[in-house]
Design brief:
The protein is an all-alpha fold. The chain has one domain. 78% of the residues lie in helices and 0% in strands. It has 13 helices and no strands. Helix 3 packs across helix 4, helix 3 packs across helix 8 and helix 10 runs antiparallel to helix 11. The protein is globular. The relative contact order is 0.15. The C terminus is likely disordered.
Length: 325
């Protein structure tokens, strides 16, 4: 089942892109790439630098509340690396898994490392969804009429999930009980602690605002002259579609939602595809520092065995002798 899902995610993204090319042609995709210039790419890189620091701050806060040390500089580099992997590889989560595994191994606690990344990403998604629902409820959009029941339904679903978790048994030695205790303890310590939740909320708001701004820049760069009030709810819809795990490096649902939303708003499906394409390319370029982090990591790790071999050779005769330099 897991293997089928791992294959189904990129296949779903490819199918969506295939349908889009069939309906609107390849022109809007090419227009989205051709419209980019140095200023738009510089804007994307600058905004992404801010959102990356905010995301790393959120991750560091959650990790520290779980008992794992994580310097901010290390967190920023690792977050750039994970964003690049998410953008370059199918599925959109490979970078986060890699980040959690690396941090867990470096900290000597793989479980806590993975949990810190999972809770940090989950908290960010929850805050973003809440902001998006508020924006779609307040601003005019193609789904404005439906928001009167979508928003309350989302709140009810969230409350039901909380009640279900609270009702699960947490006492005893069973695996289920241990998992429930771990989840409740993580949520209490890493997310709802007074020293954690303000950072989590503020950083998530900064990240959401940054991603929305990059999409606005992409839309204007590709020729859209619509106002912020009209584009912002469309941006929220497109970014919400990116949460759907059927993509190839982020491509697929984003372009499909952009085509529908822009067409429903009277801006044209082609314009939506061009804006989403530009956004995707801008996002990939903005995460290129992560490729540099990967290169530095690979270079450092390739040198580590060469440095450790002489130490091992000289330490065999006597534990008190110093390794040759």
């Amino acid at each position: 089942m897991t293997r089928a899902w791992s294959w189904g995610r990129p296949v779903g993204g490819v199918l969506i892109l295939t349908v889009l090319v069939w309906r609107v042609g390849a022109g809007p995709f090419l227009d989205g790439v051709r419209s980019l210039d140095a200023w738009s790419l510089l804007a994307a890189m600058s905004i992404t630098a801010l959102t990356t620091v905010a995301s790393a701050w959120r991750w560091r806060t959650v990790a520290r509340r779980l008992g794992i040390r994580l310097p901010l500089g290390t967190a920023v580099g690792a977050y750039y690396r994970s964003q690049f992997l998410n953008s370059a590889l199918p599925g959109g989560v490979v970078g986060d898994v890699h980040r959690g595994v690396r941090h867990g191994l470096d900290a000597g606690d793989l479980s806590r490392g993975l949990r810190a990344v999972a809770w940090e990403r989950t908290a960010g998604q929850v805050v973003f969804v809440a902001l998006a629902l508020v924006a779609l409820l307040v601003l005019e959009s193609p789904v404005h009429g439906a928001m009167t029941w979508i928003a309350p339904t989302a709140v009810v679903v969230g409350l039901c999930a909380v009640l279900v978790v609270r009702a699960l048994p947490q006492r005893g030695a069973s695996r289920c009980s241990r998992i429930v205790r771990t989840v409740r303890g993580d949520v209490r310590d890493a997310l709802f602690d007074p020293r954690a939740w303000p950072v989590v909320v503020l950083s998530s708001v900064v990240v959401a605002a940054g991603h929305g701004t990059v999409f606005l820049v992409a839309a204007w760069t590709t020729g859209t002259d619509a106002s912020v009030a009209l584009l912002l709810p469309l941006a929220m819809l497109v970014l919400l579609a990116m949460v759907v795990p059927l993509n190839v490096g982020g491509w697929g649902p984003r372009e499909g939602m952009a085509a529908w939303a822009f067409a429903a708003a009277g801006l044209g499906a082609e314009q939506g595809v061009a804006a989403a394409t530009a956004y995707g390319v801008m996002g990939l370029v903005a995460t290129l520092p992560g490729a540099a982090v990967l290169g530095v990591d690979a270079l450092r790790r390739s040198r580590e065995p060469a440095r450790s071999e002489p130490r091992q050779a000289t330490s065999n005769p006597s534990r008190t002798s110093s390794p040759a330099r």
